[in-house]
Amino acid sequence: MSHSATRQLGRTDIQVPHLTFGGNVFGWTVDKDTSFSLLDALVEKGLWFIDTADVYSRWAPGNQGGESETIIGEWLKKSGKRDRIILATKVGIEMGPGKSGLAPGYIRQAVEDSLRRLQTDYIDLYQAHRDDQDTPLAESLATFDALIKEGKVRAIGASNYSAERLSEALDISDQHGLARYETLQPEYNLYDRQEYESGLEKVAIDNGLGVINYYSLASGFLSGKYRKAEDANKSQRGAKVVEQYLNARGERIIQALDDVAAAHQASPSQVALAWLIARPGITAPIVSATSLPQVDELVKATTLTLSADEIKQLADASRY
């Protein structure tokens, strides 16, 4: 995929590929050496939009948060490829006692911590990881605006906001002449459609936001690897995936993915991603990989074009 196969990120001057790479794997399910080889391959193969967060992967035993950013920073220093990637990270989820939320002082502290770990002097997309109802939106936005003016951040985005709060934030930016959230990072995939489509989608499209959705493959369910209850033991998250998705509707979706995949000599994962990429308002779904063959699989998804009939077939199968 060449640089021409890109999309504008919101109303910014940033162009990104059709998929975003989820950096939560770095320092969690893949070690440093594997992370470096994955990052090299992502740049090489055209998936150079990397999304991480300060908190990745604090949940893993022995980790304290900052692991993903630290590995990316070490790779940037070693490879010298800062200008070859678009780098997104986030602030707001707890990093320790008193270190959470979107209060101005904390954003200031967190951005310096992220820049230090990432070994860079700017972040392309800095995102509020989740809404902070205790801090006035205007205060957080004024701080983000200042970081943009200082050249530390190019654009800002919101993750896990409700449609109401996102609209309110956009109005405040407009009224006060502040930088606005240019992107939205919601949960969205062929199975989990309700929350995004019932409100957030309209806000995003009406305001020209870039949408980089997470759980694009419904925690792996849409890959087709969980087809019966016994498949729960196929991964650490298998039991949860089977419980959440393996039902009549889930089976209909997998059947439709199988049918469309067969017509294209593609995999169910590639079809599920192609459906998202074709969705109005979606800019670059977030996907992850832990091996080089998986990266090649993702690249193929960006070149898969579904017909209007196939898109309808998938939409019908996933109706509630």
Automatic annotation (TrEMBL):
It comes from the Bacteria. GO terms for molecular function: oxidoreductase activity. GO terms for cellular component: cytosol. The keyword NAD does not apply. This is Alcohol dehydrogenase. The lineage of its organism: Bacteria, Pseudomonadati, Pseudomonadota, Gammaproteobacteria, Enterobacterales. Keywords: Oxidoreductase. CDD domains: AKR_AKR9C1 (cd19081). Pfam families: Aldo_ket_red. Residues 19-317 form the NADP-dependent oxidoreductase domain.
